[in-house]
Structures are given as C-alpha cells and as structure tokens.
Write the structure tokens for this entry.
Amino acid sequence: MDLAFLQPLYEGDAPVVSVHLDTSRVAHDADKQIELRWRAARRSLSEQGAEEADLSVLDEVAGGAPELPGPQGEALFASAGRLLGAFSLAEPPAADSARVLPVPDALGVAIDRDHQLPHVVVAVDREGADVEAYPAAGQEPASRRTFNGSTLHITRVRGGAEAQASYHRRSANLWAENTGQAADDVRAAAADVGAALVLIAGDPRAVGLLREHLGARPPEGDAEVVYVEGGRTDASARESLRAAVDSAMREAMARRHQDVLERLAGELAGGRALQGIPAVKEALAEGRVETLLMAADRSADPLLFASRRDPRVLGTEPAALGEDPTAFSAPAAPLLLRSAVLGGASFTEILPPVRCTDGVAALLRY
C-alpha cells in the first residue's frame, strides 16, 4: 500500500498529538459514548503536556461521521495549533489511544488503509445499472452513475405469436444496449478511483451481457472483476449486495496479504528481505526498503533515536546520531513508519500466523 497520503503529517517539527477513537454508531446513545471517549482522550493528552491550541483544534473535529451508521473509527493529528490530518477508519481501533510524541503515531491509519481497496460496485438489471466508485478509504462513493434505459419495449405485449416475437427482439436489443451503456459506466468509474476490484451483481441475464461487454474491453489497469449475489430491485436485494461486497472485499484483501507474505518468506530465504528492527532501520536509512511490514502489536517496542535533519536515519543509541542538536527519541513503530513514508516505501501489515523478529520486516529494492 502506498504511504504517500501520510506525508502531510510530517511537515512540521513541533510535537504531534495523535488520537485514535472508536466512533461506532451501533447504540442509541452513540453520540454520548463518543463524546465521553473524546473527553477521556483529551484529559490524557492534557496530562501528557499537549498544547491547548492543539486540543482546541481537535475539539472542532472529534466525533467521527454522524451520518454513517455501524462500526467505525477515526484518527486525528494536530501540531502547532493546526490540524494535520483527520482520517475515517473502516474498523474501530482495538482500543482508544491518545499520545503526544515528537512524530505522528500513524500506524493505526496505515493498517486500516492497508485493509481497504479502491473498488466499484455494480448492480445491473435489464433497465440499466447503478455504478458506484469507492476510493480506498471511502465510506461514501466518490462517484455514482445511475443509468436507466427506456422501458418502452420492456412491458410484455398482449396478442399472438407475431407480437410476442417482436417483443423478444426489441427486448433483446434493449438489454444489449443498456448493458453496453452500463459497461461504459463501469470503465469510467474504475478509472475514477483506480479500482483494484469491480464487484457486479444483479439480474443473471443482464450480468451475463455485462460480462461479455467487459470481457471484450475490460476496465483499464489490473482491476479484478468479481460476480457476487444481490441487486438493486428492492431493499432485500440491496442488503444482499452489501453483504456480498463486504465478504468479497475481505477475501480479496486476504489474498493480497497472503501474496505479499508469501513473497516475504521467499525473499527472506533468498537474502532479498530483512527482519528485525536493527536490520530494517539500517535499510530504511540507506533508502533500500521497497515495502515496510509491521505487525499491529507494538507493546514490546523499544525507543529509537531519530533526527530532524535526516528523517530516515534511526539509531538505538543517541551516539548513533553524533552531535546532532535535533536528535530526539520515540517508540520504534512511529519512527520506522516515518522513515518509510519519507523514503517512498510502501506498507503491508504482518498478519498471523506469520511472525517476524520484533514484528518488523522489509522487502528490499536492491
């Protein structure tokens, strides 16, 4: 996963306030629960020495997405009286966290984004299609295309065999035209978000025709096309579609993680990957890391030492940075992630049952 979206978090040198909150809206008093969570986080930040200007900035934005029901979370970052970033999380954090550190604590955001894919959801029938394009972190579609072809010749004709045959010819032509338009909409939607996945559901015949159109001219890029249950005919069909999309997305992400972790195993055996904090920090400093991999549990992380002058350089002792007056210390995970972001590396979570030394590994560029 590309980490470039995190770069704005690292633009200043002042201490950074980092907050991860469960903002799920599944209970009738969700607003009150979220307010209490933020108050507790605010108190903790104040006790850690957070500037009131930073807390005031977060007061304005804390609370998640009130219009979206269900499980969710948010990650907020502020420094020098300025909001650096506010991210919606697809899943609530395992536990709320509030930290004041020399650098952002953005691992939770990286892991959440690593479990999302830009995708297109298509519900098609004989009259047209609903096509929605979602960016990787989007809980709402970035674009929505709804196409309904003319229904003039869809209604069944009364009469004899000649009228019936005429209906079928016109109907077949209209189905082909409508699914052709739907295919154009799918290609455009996939281009909107750089889709990795296109999920299609609906009337079996319309789905079959759409499959033919997309087979003849697939969406640009390497988007995988997956056919799922559901449709757009009624609330039940739409609910079935949502459940099928969620399941297909989980399966796709599991496959992608498995591919990366299998590659890691092979590269470790061939000497083209590293594991453990000491080895990985050196590779980050040298700009050799293509992909940083980290496990979510960072409870055993040591402190590392870093520099404002060169954000990629890390040391286990202050002496490693010489007489650098900008040197500071922080837990390993935020510093490793900082080096990866500013060094142009990508990121993947290490998932069980895979284990690496210190919960850290790296695929190398060279």
In short: Confidence is low (pLDDT under 50) at residues 151-161, 163-169. The longest helix spans residues 235-270.
